[in-house]
Amino acid sequence: MAKYIIKRILWMIPVMLGVLIIVFTISYLTPGDPVITILGSGYTPEKYAAKAAELNLDKGYFGQLGSYIWGIVTRFDFGKSFYSNLSITGEFARRFPITAALGIFGCIIMVVLGLPLGILSAVKQYSVLDYTLTVIALVLAAMPGFVLAILGLVLFGVRLRWLPITGLDTPKSWILPLATNAMPCVAMIMRQTRTNMLEVIRQDYIRTARSKGLSERTILWKHALKNCLIPIITVTGGMVAMVMAGSIITENIFNIKGMGTYMYAAIMQRDYPIVNGCVLLIAFIVCCVNLIVDICYALIDPRIRARYASSGKKHKKKAHKEVT
Amino acid sequence: MSLLEIKNLSIHFVTRYSDVHAVNGVDLTIEEGKTLGLVGETGAGKTTTALGILRLIQKPQGRYESGEIIFKGKDLLKATDDEMRSVRGNEISMIFQDPMTALNPILTVGDQIAEVIHLHGKCSQAEANERAVKMLEMVGIRAERAGEYPHQFSGGMKQRVVIAMALACNPSLLIADEPTTALDVTIQAQVLEMMADLKKGRGTAMLLITHDLGIVAENCDDVAIMYAGEVIEYGTLERIFHNPKHPYTLGLFGSIPSLDKDEERLHPIEGLMPDPAALPAGCKFHDRCAYATDECASCEQELAEMESGHKVRCARVMKGEI
Amino acid sequence: MTRKKQRDEKLAANLTELTRKQGQWREVLMRLVRNKVGMFGAILCIALVILCIGAPLFTKWDPYEQAVINKFIYPGREHIFGTDDFGRDLWARLIYGGRYSLLIAFGATCFSTCMGVLLGSIAGYFGGRTDLLITRFLDILQAIPSLLLAIAISSALGSGPFNTMLAISMGGIAGGARMMRSVVMSIRGNEYIEAAKATGSSNARTIATHVLPNTIAPLIINASLSIGGNIMSISGLSFIGLGVQAPTPEWGSILAVGKTYIRDFWPLVVFPSMFIAITIFGFNLFGDALRDALDPKLKD
């Protein structure tokens, strides 16, 4: 098990490197010269050379890539903004906690709401409640976060004036951003939970549990729920990626000073070091979440635990064979 | 008084598209400590009857149309859900057909046995765990394997676990639904033998559901033959095996190859069992029966006592025409 | 991840089993038609497509014609959805704009499906080192959330319908390729493939004539379920100014304009939102129904 986790963590290195190279290459190949954009018209060749050297743009593709990687690996330095000259790492430190808080609270909301509602829907299959929840889930799943955000703003912010429109200054102002981030995910988790729950309660071992005289509640919580968690965890993990990417749009709508607005502004200005840094950081988080998801599988399901363990062994056997 | 008496039990599955008559007016009696064999083809309503006794019929489709299930003098169909739960696993327990899927994959086998002991045994969790280990040893599984998960056991071992679980609370009735069908032939004998021993030691009555007449011959005191949701012949093991009367029962025995005679081929019963969603009028077996008359196709047949301890659902047999 | 892959493989096996039997397509169609919710979704989709393709038939207004005196007119008889900040008819802009949204969504779905088929079938068919290389590449691609990837690519490529389509399709490749790979792998072991190889079929020919026909069902499911998400991404990209840009009408970019006037003029926000949501709703319902019809075992 520990071996498996280590293997997975080591595997993250080439994946992150791959992401880095892809992202860097995209920005490298982008037409237009950032130096000219920054200096505007009427620059001298000396000025140009100085600026290019300052921004580390005077080297070739591999030179730039190499020093970029070197900076990140040795100093956790993502470089500097083309325009503001501020360190990107410092800006991350200031902005990331806000986005992370929104994301984490959003995830808590989507699990806390989505899971019980999905179970309820499954247990009361074909009831009015089930139909209502299913319709709500279908409608919510059809609403991109930003559409939900805008409609929420119009209704609660502008028409009813219940909630503030921008910022995160008061506790009340968290409601709309959190809700719009979490709601489509709540819907998806709910549908996934319902589907799995219905599948699980049809299983033979649930009938066995009933034949033992267990109460419906024990059957649900002890026997059924854990068995239907794995696909739900998969979906929840995917949601984290969605929420992180969606933050670019939602933060922009609510004017929240997190990673999303930072990246948005950078995209508009073509400030590539920032865009690259943001994508890398988010990809890193996605990788970590995937790892956590895989570990959760093992914690829940002994069969997967066994497979992880044996995957390590198989590797050893193979190596052994190659030696002999 | 008998331990269990089922009277006129009918169970239908009603959906928007169909009305499946799975069990139609079944009468069965099980005496204390005795074993009743319930024999029939797939789809004859054996499993539904068994699940019906424990009120585990799938809702909302499954419905009790009529009947009484008197267990120790009380009608289970009138019991509350709470009363029913205290019967399940405690006084009546069940062994299912497929041990591969009957155990929860994410709980240790020890836990799954201890759970039922803790629930009905009114004892501490520690004591329940201890007794669970003892149960495992009794079915021939080493104590240290209690902490293992079902996927670490073979099919036969799993069925032993299921049996340990079913017997953990000393039930007075054990329902075994084809307990060995899913197992290898060599393991089948072992498991059956073990079940018989345990049963004898504890005086547990058993309802043994099977389609294997060999198993019936070795384990049962009484036999009921089911066809299309009805009991068509019912009697002591000796009567049924030595003097089968109903044409279907005759057919069943006929389809077993005999070692004594030099026969070229098997003699299966022609045709198929009727669709339980569209049962024919009259005798349900008439279209496959070699002795059927026009009357058989129109008149409902009664399960009538031919001799003491031997009932048959066939008018022609009763009239002595067969 | 492992569990998901396993499920994909199971699904793939079920589906290949299904598609192998000819004549089951009629049954699939029957199941599809009988699914009322799915048919409702299909009707929504068809209605939208007709509305967008035949846009000139459903409005007398030109979506580009500005008339500043007419700006911010509330919905009424003349302009059923009102007018925007340049006095253009909103209904006309929405139904003309739908052409872009739908076309880009279909284009992106087609492109990512084709790429997925190519990568997935190569990986699944050849296995070994090729497979390892491709799956590793997919791992990397999947580490970047698809919307983020689309944003990064389209910020590099610049705006415009074609670039948007390309940017969005990138995020869909990995899913389709994984699906395709497991389908092909499950078919590869079958005897008729061995037989084709034994009779001297070339690899490309074997893939095209024996493997691909068996992968149609899972591909249809994958594609139909991704259209809704693609529409979501397109409007999202346009909304932040990266996709289709003004004055080209596109639902996301219309909504972005509406956001500026959120305090004063609600129609410019509500109607584009409605169009986006109804379209995704319709495609989701239809996609679900199609999946249920093609593989009843997966029904929820």
Structure description:
The complex is a heterotrimer of chains A (324), B (322) and C (300). Helices cover 80% and strands 0% of the residues of chain A. In chain A, helix 12 packs across helix 13. Chain A contains 13 helices and no strands. Chain A has a domain of 224 residues: MetI-like (MetI-like fold), CATH 1.10.3720.10. By secondary structure, chain B is an alpha/beta fold. The longest helix of chain B is centred in the middle third of the chain and has 18 residues. Chain B is globular, with a radius of gyration of 21 Å. In chain C, helix 1 crosses helix 8, helix 2 crosses helix 13 and helix 9 runs antiparallel to helix 10. Chain C has 300 residues and is mostly helical. Chain C has one domain: MetI-like fold, CATH 1.10.3720. Chain C is built from 13 helices and no strands. In chain C, 75% of the residues lie in helices and 0% in strands. The mean pLDDT of chain C is 81. Chains in contact: A-B, A-C. At the A-C interface, helix 1, helix 6, helix 7, helix 8 and helix 10 of A face helix 1, helix 6, helix 7, helix 11 and helix 12 of C.
